[in-house]
Amino acid sequence: MNEGELFSAGDQARPELAGMRPGSDQGRASQDVRSRPEPRPGDVDTIGSRSLTFSPEEYLGRIAAVRGRMSDQGLSALIVTDPANIYYLTGYNAWSFYTPQLLFVPASGPLTLFLRDMDAHGATHTSWLPPEDIVGYPERYVQRPHIHPFDWVAFALRQRWEVARASATPVGVEMDSHFFSPRAFRALVNGVPEWRLVDSFELVNWIRAIKSADEVAIMRSAAEVTTAAMDAALGTLGVGIGQHEVASAIAAAQARGRGRAWGDYPAIVPMLPTGESADTPHLTWSDRRFVADEAVSVELAGVHRRYHVPLARTAVVGRPRQELVRLEGVVAEALAAVLEAAAPGTATAELARTWNRILAVAGLEKPSRLGYSIGIGYPPDWGERTISIRTEDEQVLEAGMTFHLICGMWMNGYGYELSESILVTDTGCEAFTSFPREIIRL
């Protein structure tokens, strides 16, 4: 189909053009958008607004924090495409992020969520946004080689009178979002030439780094799911058992959860590097069967309401090799020292140096980072893409921050993984789970 055929399917398939010309004659719809007061979470009579995960005050605080940082960065508006950030600000949660979607956050006034038309109604079921601020783009824009949904969104922003008032200073864009493609960026550049689009530098992600008390409570529930999933993995492992059988047990436990802590889907699938392949992280599974005295690194996460608590342990069915036992002792000592040092006011670089010093005494090193900030996660990652624990990062710890400390030692032909998800408290830190920090001997 060529461009001209887009509007050849009759009047029913034509876009609604009435009032879409920008300017003083734009139409009553734009006047209503400009004069309407900003809606408050919880005030709208929709399914989503009646069943919020967090209080209206918490959502308002998040939006205020975002706008405060926008002001600090000189931004007139922010374009949010990371599904974790959209969820954080609006509560919207669905598997719709494989097609372009965008939350428009102006310096003041209503937020607008643009997404595929078939998903627009679903946003009233999970978000606090009123229906008039949930805008679906036509199906004909989905996965086409010569047009993009954001072509339509750019014009819709004009209809809502958002373009001119956001043109005085730059508009921030999540340049490193997994779901913001070069074509999406090009569509916005071409569709709104008045705007100077600049990198927002993970603006919302940085605000997410400090968790509220309610967020911590959800992560504690996620930790219950983590424990159930690791128990399922260790309870299934055995000589002759296939990796896929262990992965199946983990997935079932991740969905089932434990008690009132029901399980959500993880941003990353279970990972099971085994035997010689354990010298490499991030391997998943096959039908390979476990043999006696062979180590497997089990890395997984429990998830509740999109909040993740990852965990890794190394297990052996039988007797571990001596090299692995040596790693077990050094890693346990180094991790204990890091946990002792982790407290508000400590720089992440100091945690990395603490870890490196103990490894160096044993003649070991870990080139990769020791950990990273965690919280809300959507595929393909459960990290927040902000704070890393390494010597090059001088971020100072604050109470409410949460991290995954991944003490992975990937050697030549073997490997050892031990990890903890931790919460920085007012006086130190605490782990979300309580598995032994040693090789799990089965």
Automatic annotation (TrEMBL):
Gene3D superfamilies: Creatinase/methionine aminopeptidase superfamily, Creatinase/prolidase N-terminal domain
Biased composition (Basic and acidic residues): 31-43
Database matches in InterPro entries: Creatin/AminoP/Spt16_N, Creatinase/aminopeptidase-like, Creatinase_N, Pept_M24, Peptidase_M24B
Peptidase M24 domain segment(s): 218-426
Region Disordered, annotated ranges: 1-50
Domain spans labelled Creatinase N-terminal: 62-210
Name of the featured protein: Xaa-Pro dipeptidase
Lineage start: Bacteria, Bacillati, Actinomycetota, Actinomycetes, Micrococcales
